[in-house]
Amino acid sequence: MLLGLAAVAAAGATFLPFSELLIRLAPGQPQTAYVTSGWSTHFGGAKDEHGPLFGIPIVVMAAVVLMGVRWRKVAFAGAAGLAGVTGMLFVYLLNAISFHQEGNIAIDPALQAGFGNGIWVLISAVVLAFGAVVVHPDD
């Protein structure tokens, strides 16, 4: 049950924003949102056709977590894989957000950057998956 919940949470997180950046491209213009999710990156209303698809490895690892309902070792491998993917994504986002911190770019001193809800749901799914492995009955 907990493994299923962790898998659903991880897969669901891919549809939420992982990071959000608000930037003004020219003085006097409204800020434009740059949002990254597991399946797309949007800049304003335009979709970046070459954005990374973080959702693929997350969903694959969520499927492995779900298969772990039957075997504890598979559950542990899935939780570890999900943790690895989440760690990689977190470092990527941390690097991007650190570079774009408030006032870091001369074009827009009011620039705002931060983590979206998706990354926190994904981290929670990892914690839940490892918790589920601990209470999983032995094979």
Essential attributes:
139 residues, alpha+beta, five-stranded antiparallel beta sheet, single chain
Characterise this structure.
The chain is an alpha+beta fold. Helix content is 52%, strand content 14%. The chain has four helices and five strands. A five-stranded antiparallel sheet has the order 4-3-2-1-5. Strand 3 (41-43) and strand 4 form a beta hairpin. The protein starts with a helix and ends with a helix. The mean pLDDT is 87.
Task: List strands and helices in order, with pairings.
Blueprint: H1 2-13, E1 19-23, E2 32-36, E3 41-43, E4 46-47, H2 55-67, H3 72-99, E5 112-115, H4 117-135
Antiparallel strand pairs: 1-2, 1-5, 2-3, 3-4
Helix pairs in contact: 1-2, 1-4, 2-3, 3-4
Quick take:
This protein is α+β, with helices and mostly antiparallel strands and 139 residues long.
Annotation field: number of helices: 4
Indicate the radius of gyration in whole angstroms.
Answer: 17 Å
Largest sheet: 5 strands, antiparallel
| Proportion of helical residues | 40-55%
Order of helices and strands: HEEEEHHEH
Helical/strand content category: alpha+beta
> Which segments are poorly predicted (pLDDT under 50) over 5 or more consecutive residues?
none
Q: What is the beta-strand fraction?
A: 5-15%
C-alpha end-to-end distance? 16 Å
Approximate shape: elongated
Mean pLDDT: 87
Question: Which strand order do you get reading across the main beta sheet?
Answer: 4-3-2-1-5
